[in-house]
């Protein structure tokens, strides 16, 4: 039976569990950790000797996990870009201003008049010092 038709080589949960992939991977890694400066990915790539189906399922799971995390990252990036574009659209719909530039000349007269009135009220009325320093 070839690998393509043999059920132990199929990427299914049953094949993964039947080959005791988790237990064999944990035992293998405990053994490998005894040697100094061992990297998981490098050692896993070399380990097709004793338990080929467990190694195969482990590497397939790592590849699927990588694809899954890449899909999550792409989704986050696309979501952020969509949200940024949506902020501009929502702001335009919520506050429909055709010309957001404000001509200062239209309000300058009123601004000067208000500031002059406030300033004049302080100049012409003596301050009651009793408010600030009671005796």
UniProtKB/TrEMBL annotation:
Key words, A-Z: Membrane, Transmembrane, Transmembrane helix
Keyword presence, Transmembrane: yes
Transmembrane residue ranges: 107-127
Protein name per its UniProtKB record: Uncharacterized protein
UniProt source species: Tothia fuscella
Taxonomic lineage of the native organism: Eukaryota, Fungi, Dikarya, Ascomycota, Pezizomycotina
């Amino acid at each position: 039976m070839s690998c393509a038709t043999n059920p132990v080589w199929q990427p299914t949960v049953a094949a993964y569990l039947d080959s005791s992939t988790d237990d064999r991977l944990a035992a293998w890694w405990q053994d490998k950790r005894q040697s100094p400066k061992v990297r998981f990915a490098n050692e896993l790539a070399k380990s097709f000797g004793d338990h080929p189906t467990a190694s195969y399922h482990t590497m397939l799971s790592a590849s699927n996990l990588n694809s899954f995390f890449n899909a999550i990252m792409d989704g986050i990036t696309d979501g952020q870009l969509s949200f940024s574009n949506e902020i501009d659209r929502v702001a335009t719909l919520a506050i429909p201003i055709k010309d957001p530039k404000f001509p200062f000349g239209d309000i300058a007269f009123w601004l000067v008049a208000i500031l002059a009135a406030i300033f004049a009220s302080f100049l012409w009325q003596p301050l009651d010092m009793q408010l600030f320093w009671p005796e």
